[in-house]
Write a structure and sequence with these properties.
The structure is a homodimer.
Chain A (H helix, E strand, L loop, with lengths): L1 E8 L6 H12 L4 E14 L5 H16 L5 E7 L1
Antiparallel strand pairs in A: 1-2, 1-3
Chain lengths: 79, 79
């Protein structure tokens, strides 16, 4: 079972990587107003547990390992 | 108009970051079989063009700036 975890910088947090990408794109002539850069992690769980247990496990991974809750938000979805 | 670009390492490419995340998760007791790490870029285009032009522009950004086609694939979707 595969799960997609999307991690984005919080709206109120600075996103230096996004700013850098935006300024590069603007320099190349693309009219970009704003740009945010985040991460995606595709997690493939070993079978055995049921789906709701899996989802709980992935949420725990996202909260404790994959994201920094102070500056990032995450979203989990089943693939 | 906002567009979401998801960039993932190709299946056949090594993904050292994914391997590192997987081994960390396994060490912490999560039963993860496989793990791939990619990037997401949310691009907010200045209004003015129509949607199909915008989508073309975002695809061009993804292909030329945001991803490395040799080792990564990308996917664009409207938000």
């Amino acid at each position: 079972m595969k799960y997609l975890v999307t991690i984005m910088p919080r709206e109120e947090a600075l996103d230096p990587q996004g700013r850098a990408v935006q300024s590069t794109l603007n320099r190349l002539g693309f009219k970009v107003q704003d740009c945010r850069v985040g991460k995606v992690v595709v997690v493939d769980l070993a079978d055995g547990s049921n789906e709701s247990q899996n989802l709980e496990a992935v949420k725990k991974m996202a909260q404790t390992v994959l994201s920094n809750p102070l500056i990032e938000t995450f979203e989990v979805r089943t693939l």
